[in-house]
Amino acid sequence: MLPQYSFVIPIYNEESNIPELARRLSEVANHLDGETEFVFINDGSRDRSLELLRGLQDYDPRFCYLSLARNFGHQVAVTAGLNFVRGQAIIVIDADLQDPPELALDMIAQWQQGYQVVYAQRIKRYKENWLKRFYAYWFYRILKRLADIEIPTDTGDFCLMDRQVVDILNGMPERNRYLRGLRSWVGLQQTSILFERNARFAGERKYTFRKSFSLALNGIISFSRVPLRLATYLGLIAAALALIMAVMVLYWRLFPANSPLTGYATILIAVFFLGAVQLVCIGILGEYIGRIYEEVKGRPLYVLSEVGGFTSQKE
Ligand code: UDP
Ligand code: MG
Question: How many domains does the chain have?
Fold first, then answer.
């Protein structure tokens, strides 16, 4: 019998969270009115995570896992999970218990009301450093202004999606997967549940600053062409400035008595400034072109090295 509910849980070096996570997920599943499966995706962990995942079937037969051949990144790990789950309502949740598993019950209640997407929106974050909070806060607000579509602020990947939505996501060919954006892109009936984001149960953040930055950049570039227009705007501004300066220079030439013209310094600054602006604009172009290149290569999104726990349920 196919499960009604599926959970997708990406795992990257989470050995210290897995036992508690499994306990709480099992508990949640006991309160559900349908068959449930939990699909863990081991994203190339270097600790004992995979070993623990292999052992979970004995603890509860509802647990199954995929193992990727190396660390492909959070968004790809979740994508792999979405490809494999078989439920009618699919819940994506982090492994570190920052997203309380019990909230899935409320999400399912909303789904039963007819919503196809129920996403969790943070109203508070506990124990995350101020720098992370600061850039997360501004990133979501900037993205909201730049994006072509409405992407709600302060929402991560923790959500419930209907089978229909997951099928649409699975059909999207893109490599740069900013899932929370793609999820909004689908539309249909979406609603939010407010929650306070806990601190990690154990372990360190797996999203380094570099990974977060690249995720943020992906979000903006996948959903906005505004940065490309920056070059045009800056070019127009520079042209206007040049015109004003030309008039000023002409004036000082005609009335040299009060001329502040200094020669080299002004020219140097102007040259460097324009050089910098041009490099930034080329860099932005590069970001878009790099992504086109990624898409065109068409490599598979991930490589699996091991799958376990599914068979018992398929029979
Ligand atoms: N994760 C992953 N691959 C990675 C990085 C993270 O599968 O390359 C998983 C991680 O195990 C966790 C989730 O993604 O379940 C969120 O990671 P983290 O808690 O470090 O991010 P944060 O909650 O701080 O944004
Ligand atoms: Mg976390």
Answer: 2
161 and 14 share a domain? yes
Residue 66 contacts residue 81 (beta carbons within 8 Å): yes
Residue 205 sits in the same domain as residue 245: no
Q: Report if residue 313 sits inside a domain.
A: no
Q: What is the pLDDT of residues 238-260, one digit of tens each?
A: 888 888 888 888 888 788 776 77
- Closest atom of ligand 1 to 156 CA is 25
Nearest atom, ligand 1, residue 212 CA: 25
Pocket of ligand 1 (CB under 6 A): 10-12, 14, 43, 71, 73-74, 77, 94-96, 98, 205-207
Say if 315 falls within a structural domain: no
CATH of the domain at 163: 3.90.550.10
Of the bound ligands, which one is closest to the alpha carbon of residue 14?
1
Domain that holds residue 242: 226-297
> For a substitution probing ligand 1, which of 7, 8, 12 has the most ligand atoms within 8 Å of its CB?
12
Helices (H), strands (E): how many in the chain? 11, 8
Over the stretch 131-188, which tens digit does the pLDDT of each residue have? 878 888 888 888 888 888 888 888 889 999 999 999 999 999 888 888 888 999 998 9
Question: Which segments within 110-268 are labelled E, that is strand?
Answer: 117-125, 155-162, 190-197
The model's pTM:
0.81
Q: Do residues 216 and 114 share a domain? A: yes
Q: Specify if 275 maps to a domain.
A: yes
130 and 51 in one domain?
A: yes
| CA 291 to mean position of chain CA atoms | 16
Task: Output DSSP code: residue 256.
Answer: G
Q: Residue 82: enclosing H or E segment and its boundaries? A: helix 74-84
Write down how long the chain is: 315
